[in-house]
Write a structure and sequence with these properties.
The structure is a single chain. α2 crosses α4 and α5 crosses α6. It contains nine helices and eleven strands. Strands 1, 2, 3, 4, 5, 6 and 7 form a seven-stranded mixed β-sheet that branches. By secondary structure, the protein is α+β, with helices and mostly antiparallel strands. A hairpin with a 4-residue loop joins β3 and β4. The structure holds (3R)-3-hydroxy-3-methyl-5-(phosphonooxy)pentanoic acid (PMV). The site of (3R)-3-hydroxy-3-methyl-5-(phosphonooxy)pentanoic acid has 17 residues, from α4 and α5.
């Protein structure tokens, strides 16, 4: 049995989302995590994930290993015994790791769905999302839950922590170019750094979070009403606020600048920052030129994706 889960990218609202402001994120289907689960007669549960050099029996994994935990949490939370016959879980992924494209959450979602079908259990999206969120806490400390949500539902999501996720309509498709700095985004660290700054300078940070919330709300309306070209200016504004929050970096700023100079309608970092990805809004005929400009400016990988 094979299952798959897409990558994701945050359009607006990262960091502010941790403080209960809304964020927008969309799935990126060009990249995905894939899981193949096969019966075994060995009585053991083996995990094969060549991309991260992992080949191990479940009981040999350290207690907080995200893949071991997703398997154990699945069976304990559903009150199911581990299958006596055992099974083999093969995991591959084309989602860049620690880049802000949700590789960890996508692996969790694909594994949970593989385990559900293997055990003949039918899970709602809500249950899959909840189980995946538990694993996100191991990856990221205090995650907002946006990654697991957009990846579980596989649709554009307007997300507020603790509220049921809202999917929304894309009035007119639009094109994004994603540029990867190739530097792992230290999300856990930047989230706690923002918290330290917020504690010291609460009023200023609250004001910035409110501005980001406003940008995110206008962005949602622009997307729904078929005016995606308005997102460019909003991306630039959101990026400036993220710079002020100290979560950009010289590599991200260089890519953002290169995209704008190559004709992007706007650009910003995406995700935790200080590494990972940036995104640019492109007219579709100009997307390749922007991607090339990003490569020249040092991007390790680029993706062109249409949001629809
Ligand atoms: O780096 P990513 O794409 O996993 O996103 C992190 C987004 C933050 O808002 C910084 C943290 C969170 O948990 O939402």
């Amino acid at each position: 049995m094979k299952t798959s889960a897409p990558g994701k990218i945050i359009l607006f609202g990262e960091h502010a989302v941790v403080y209960n402001r809304p964020a927008l994120a969309v799935p990126v289907t060009q990249v995905h995590a894939d899981v193949d689960i096969q019966d075994s007669a060995s009585g053991q549960i083996w995990i094969h994930a060549p991309g991260i050099n992992l080949q191990a029996e479940l009981t040999a994994l350290p207690p907080n290993h995200p893949i071991g935990s997703v398997i154990l949490n699945f069976f304990t939370s559903l009150n199911l015994p581990l299958p006596a016959a055992g099974f083999d879980l093969h995991i591959t992924s084309s989602i860049p790791v620690a880049s802000g494209m949700g590789s960890g959450a996508a692996v969790s979602v694909a594994v949970i769905r593989a385990l559900a079908s293997h055990t003949g259990y039918s899970l709602t999206d809500e249950q899959v999302n909840q189980l995946a969120y538990e694993i996100e806490k191991i990856h990221h400390g205090t995650p907002s839950g946006i990654d697991n949500t957009v990846i579980t539902y596989g649709k554009p999501v307007y997300f507020i922590k603790g509220s049921p996720p809202e999917t929304f309509r894309v009035g007119k498709p639009f094109t994004l170019v994603i540029g990867d700095t190739g530097i792992p985004a230290p999300t856990k660290e930047s989230v706690s750094d923002v918290r330290r700054q917020w504690l010291k300078n609460t009023n200023h940070f609250e004001t910035m979070f409110n501005e980001i919330a406003q940008i995110t709300l206008i962005a949602r309306r622009s997307i729904e009403s078929g005016k995606p070209e308005m997102l460019g200016e909003l991306m630039d504004q959101n990026h400036a606020l993220l710079q002020e929050m100290t979560v950009s970096s010289k590599e991200l700023d260089a890519l953002v600048q290169a995209a704008r100079s190559a004709g992007a309608l706007g650009a910003k970092l995406s995700g935790g920052g200080r590494g990972g990805n940036m995104i640019a809004l492109a007219e579709s005929q100009n997307a390749k030129t922007i991607a090339d400009a990003l490569q020249t400016a040092g991007a390790k990988q680029t993706f062109i994706t249409e949001v629809h």
